[in-house]
Specification:
The chain is mostly helical. The chain contains 8 helices and no strands. The chain folds into 2 domains: 69 residues; 106 residues.
């Protein structure tokens, strides 16, 4: 259910743009995101940091887009969000010696510290890549091409998340699997102790 909710605002945004224009579509995106976050809050009684940041940026950049009648603001919103998330992960790692990815997911995943560090850097690099890619498409191509990129560009996060899932599962299974050739800590019990001779009739 929650996974489907993540796609609703962008699909409505895309559909509204195809039927009308970028400004009406921006209003639809703002309204749909508010409804989406309200539903998530009703289901989970809280919003994650990423969800809060997404809501604030969509409302802020959407208001600028509509108020100034300039679609550059809504087109640059993803780059601002991705860059902010990358700086948060890298700043936490370098300046505060804290892995914020581990802070968010450490209760759900038991992984070695080195794996958490690699995951933190890989997510930061992914956010920087997506931010730069969005900026390039927003500047170099038309609004219609950027809208198409917003839909078909989902191949990047899907591929990245699948790769991360495979990497994490490999380390989880390796840490939980019992070493080969390791004898059980409690040998099976026998009905009769082999060290004692059988009783004679």
């Amino acid at each position: 259910m929650k996974a489907l909710l993540d796609f609703v605002p962008i699909l409505l945004f895309f559909g509204a743009y195809k039927l009308t224009d970028i400004y009406i579509a921006t209003g639809v995106l703002m309204a749909a995101t508010c409804v989406q976050m309200a539903v998530i809050y009703a289901m989970e009684r809280k919003l994650q940091t990423m969800q809060k940041a997404t809501l604030v940026l969509i409302l802020a950049f959407g208001a600028l887009t509509l108020g100034l009648h300039d679609d550059r603001f809504i087109k640059w919103k993803p780059t601002v969000l991705y860059t902010a998330m990358a700086l948060l992960l890298l700043g936490g790692q370098w300046l505060m010696r804290r892995n914020f990815l581990h802070v968010l997911l450490g209760k759900q995943l038991a992984l070695p510290p080195a794996v958490w560090t690699r995951l933190n850097y890989s997510w930061a690099l992914y956010f920087l890549f997506m931010g730069a890619l969005n900026a390039y498409v927003a500047v170099a191509y038309s609004t219609e091409a950027w809208m198409d990129f917003k839909i078909w560009g989902y191949v990047f996060p899907i591929a990245f998340i699948l790769a991360q899932g495979l990497y994490v599962s490999r380390h989880m299974s390796g840490s939980q699997a019992e070493p080969a050739g390791h004898a059980p800590s409690h040998p099976p019990s026998h009905d009769q102790d082999d060290s004692q001779p059988p009783r004679q009739p």
